[in-house]
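Supplementary Data S3. Sequence and structure tokens for construct A.
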Amino acid sequence: MNRAWSAAPPLVLAAAVALSAPQQRAAEEDVRDWLRLVQNHRPGAADHSVLEASRWAWSILNPVLQELHHHAPPAVILRSVAMLSDLAFHVPVEERPNANVSGYSIVAQDGQTRRLGMLDAHLAAARRLADALPRNPSADATEVRSHVVAWYRTVSAALASTHNLADLEPHVGRALARFPDDAGTLFDGGGFYEAFASPMTQVPLAEDADRPSHQVPGKLLIQYKRSPAALLNEAQRHFRRAVELEPSFAEARVRLGRVLMARGRSSDAVPELQRAVKLDADETVKYYAWMFLGAALAETGSAAEAIRAYRSASALFPHAQSPQLAISQIAGEQGNISAARDALERALAPVEAAMDRFDPWWVYLRGHGRNLDSVHEIFAARIQALPAVDPDRWRER
């Protein structure tokens, strides 16, 4: 799995130039061609419309999107935004026309820098188009806003699921600027900063510490760096605001507790995590809550309570190794060699199938992206339920 890290400012698409009358007529036909593709596209699918749209030159696509931005009704814009993001997720960026923009990334795998990549111009174009909504206050403004928020969160999930932090950084930045009081958007922002502060990201950046820039054709790539401490501070701020807005948001509270621990504030993390284990949540989030509560209790000297927390985590995923390793470490530090050995034996015990060994910790840094399939399915259903596109009668009235 490739993991991309941001290494340049967010890309900015060039503004469309004014068109002459003959060019305007040609652009109108381009708009109809685009809308025919949108009309025939099944949201979430890599169908013919997506593949055809991925070949469009930016000199044609930009004026079309500008026209839609100014004159299309919400359903047309939302369907176009959804197709742009489907295009981005199903067609590799290297196989699409290169926008005349500045934006590169570091692509790393297993902590090693592999190559330079490009930021996704089609996702940036989708965000620019989404900025048209909601328009002036209207009866459906609240519903349209919910669609836009859902799109931002769906794209965040997709990027987080593949650790594409390069494209996630400008995406969550724009989402937070537009929807600063949406708890889900704040959660996604916190997840981005938490992942950026992790060794998964920091190790490849440190690998290039002696090479502060890279020369690429026609561009100078400058490393994008922030200290892990500053990133964790941002993560804490966003998770804190999310739970202030939604006190029952279990995973936001779990991650707030984990970030507090990472910042050396385990005593502050304990009450947050004690609240979290009492909230309604799926088994994976409950597992995280018990695991981090165990770690916080161990850090604050409550060894017996920590072991009980780790055992609660293990009860949810009996074959996961992390709780047993933690129990073994605490037991060993307490001089209980028998209990330490027993936990290790449980961790190393054979299982019938590899999937039985699954440990939710492996996917923790994917955040909202852990649930990508269901998130995509729900969003695709939203878009499918919108009014159909009429390529010949599309302008807002």
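Construct B, processed identically:
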Amino acid sequence: MNVIGLMSGTSADGVDAALVEIRGTPADLRVREIAFLTQPYDDATRTAVLDLCRPDAPLLALGRVHVLLGHRFAEAALAVIAQSGVETTAVDFIGSHGQTVYHAPGGDLPFTLQIGDPAVIAARTGIPTVADFRAADVAAGGQGAPLVPYPDWLMWHHSTRTRALQNIGGIANVTYLPSGGGPESVIAFDTGPGNVLIDAIAVRASNGASRYDRNGTLAAQGEVDETLLSHLLDHSYLQQPPPKSTGRETFGAVFAADLWRQAEASGLSPAGLAATLTAFTAASIADAYRCWLPILPDEVFLCGGGADNPVLVRMIREYLARAFGGAVPVVRHYDETGYSSAAKEAVAFAILAYETWHGRPGNLPQVTGAARHAVLGKITPSANYRQPVTGGSL
């Protein structure tokens, strides 16, 4: 085999690259160097690298949390195995999405960063772990998101019914499945904020006692500020056609803090602001359907935390009716399918890991904007590396 090795050392002078030919097996391994070069770093790159090596640099915290979350993910995997009664040795592999800490798929060096060290997960559980799913799509020119639409299509495409699966997590996203369509017909994108802004206001209004607006109680006590809502619906992200994705970088703490200050200055109560932001989520979903979906779906399945907020669900029905001239699809909770809304995205990444394990692509280029299909993720071996397992072998 011809293999390239890449290395940048402590001096951070540049990248060493060696192309070698490797033959045989231990203890009769033969290595022949074919070519070698060093690509020096420019001054700006070297400075950027060295700045990250300071003890007080944010990298130290990032590295520690990366490992910490690896342990937490491993503990969750072991707990669900214990709950199931299945032997650990019967689990073939784990698919871990990780925790997104920054999503920046645009610009000259697009990236998306998910942490939660898969090496820790594999070491703690003894199970091979597939992780870092989004990077391959970004490397292919895509947004790296959303990735759940392919599992959605695998599970929920229908020969006669057009369906939409509307997730309302921190960010809201839709998967549109045309009746009788293949995976190439799927439309999916982030519709805008989900619970992230509502949650932020609930935290502020309760002085930290509540992490979210349970059952929409706070929003139910307020009135929607139509002027503010109209302004919010003019946000540039909402006008952007798919493929698109967003996150806390756009609709996060800074955005929420600005809205809180505006509300205080204008005399809008916390309940009124919560009601307006709940309407913002609902209206942005309805507007996204009107603008970017070919036809109104026959069925909409709501999932994520927002599906359990009755005020938000009511508003979604109301704004869909406004957007489509009174026509309203059947809007159901995802739990009505017999599957758990809470588990939906974890299940999706188990499916994506299954596809990776078998060398099959997991992205939909028309959804993410990637130039091509890509096998997603990276496989981290465990102690049983190279041993046969039920689903295949590493």
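The first strand starts at residue 2 and ends at 7. The chain has a mean pLDDT of 91.
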